[in-house]
Amino acid sequence: MNTLKLGEHFICDLSECDRELLLDAERASELFTRAVDESGLTIVNKGFYKFNPHGFTCFLLLAESHASLHAWPEYGYCAIDLFTCNLSLDISPLVGRLQDLFGAKHCSVYHLDRAAEVSEPVLI
Prior knowledge:
Helices cover 23% and strands 47% of the residues. It is built from three helices and six strands, in the order E-H-H-E-E-E-E-H-E. The protein has helices at residues 19-23, 25-38, 92-101, and strands at residues 2-15, 43-50, 56-62, 65-72, 77-84, 106-118. It has a six-stranded antiparallel beta sheet, covered by helices on one side. The chain is elongated, with a radius of gyration of 16 Å. The model has no long low-confidence stretch (mean pLDDT 94). Its EC number is 4.1.1.50.
């Protein structure tokens, strides 16, 4: 058996963000989408849901996997997931850009390698 790295998952917590921006869910979602698109990832579909009275979730289905943002404007907080199977892409510029765009004073990033225990590939 061998371990085969198939992707990387980045979990980002952005705190003390610009609450005014996060209250404008459509604009915040648009900024997120543009940043991901400009990072070199390929958006193939997207979704958006606005909560009442505030907060939203947006997700981007990527050719390389997915990206999502969950916002709590009342706390000035964003939870962002970035999962990519493009192992050569440096994701740190995108994380820095998102931190800047949302005015986050604090950013924590957790990195997980997504891997499988494999023997021989099975061709179907």
